[in-house]
Structure formats: C-alpha cells, structure tokens
Amino acid sequence: MVKKKIKILGISGSLRPDSSASAVLGIVSKLFPANVDFKIYTGIGEIPAFDDSKEIPFPVAGFIKQIEEADGVFFCIPEYAFGVPGALKNALDWTVSGTAFSDKPVALITAASQGQKAHAALLNTLTALGTKINEDATLLISFIRSKLDENKEVVDIATLEAIKKLVESFIKSVEICGV
Questions:
Q1: CA–CA distance from 70 to each of 23, 45, 81, 170 (Å)?
Q2: Which residues 6+ apart lie within 8 Å of 145 measured at CB?
Q3: Which domain holds residue 21?
C-alpha cells in the first residue's frame, strides 16, 4: 500500500534565516520520511499589521491558503521579551476569524534561552485557533545556543532524540486526522 503524500507547512517564528529557531526548523525538515512534503513558509515578514479588515491583503491570503492546503503545521519559535515573536503573532491574528487552523494538527518547538512563556503563549493561541495539539508534539528547548554547533547542527544527543521523537509523534497525529 502506498501512503498518501503528507503536506506539512513549517513556520519559523524568527524572521532571521540564521536564527536558532530557523536552524532547528531546518534540522526538523530533514527528519521527515519520504512520504512527507515539508515546506518552510518564509513570508511572515511580508504580512501587514492585522487590522481586522474585511479585505484580506494578498500576502495574508497566500499565508492562509498554505495553511489550508497543509495536512499539518510545524512551528519552531524563539522567545522575544517573554513572548511570541510579534510578526508570527500578527500573522496568526489574521486567521482568527477563519477556519484555516480548525482541527489542524500542529507541532511546536520553542528554541530559546529560556522559552517557557513564549511556549505557553503560543500554545494558548493555537488552542484559540482550534488546532489539534498532541502534547507529544510539543517541545521546549531551553538554552538552545549551547545545544547547537557553529554550523547550527544539534550537538546535544538528548535534544536531537527529543526532536526525532516529536517528529514521529507529529506524523502519527497527522495520519490519525485522516491523511
């Protein structure tokens, strides 16, 4: 039996491609099996400030379309001033009045110096959006810089194993949701 191709949208909470969160998302992208099409969304910085407008700006429409087309969404975020990065929160605010995230499986890795507050805050936002969050598909990696080498590869074995376990759990969650 051939498995259906699973579409996962990866979203970094950092606008910097060389950030620790973006590096971890890149590592995650290499861990999915061949039946997973993992695409990293890079347009968060292009999304205008949320204004609850009835007219959806083009970048927002594209963002929502990619979420809707994905079987699951995988977030990797840093923590800024004890919270979710503003550009990511802004992008998610555009989805509040729609159903793009309704019953959508999501995974979350928070890769930060500490990260507890941003992790909890994004989990609250994802709950408000109606996502399906499997506790085994969330991971807080504190002191991330000490766990990456100069090439932004994970050198901490326990962290790498936790990421691999999370990816496996997330794939199962997506499959259970009917892919």
A1: 21, 20, 30, 13
A2: 20, 113
A3: 15-34+71-176
Write down the pTM of the prediction.
0.95
Number of domains, the chain: 1
In a domain, 131, yes or no: yes
CA 50/CA 87 separation, integer angstroms: 10
Beta bridge pairs of residue 139: 109
Q: What tokens appear for 175 in the block?
A: 């499959």
Burial tier of 60 (Cβ tally within 10 Å: 0-12, 13-18, 19+): buried
Read off the pLDDT of residues 89-112 as tens digits, 9 standing for 90 and up: 999 999 999 999 999 999 999 999
Judge whether 60 and 47 are in contact, CB under 8 Å: yes
The enclosing domain of 29 has a CATH number of 3.40.50.360
Q: Is residue 63 part of a domain?
A: no
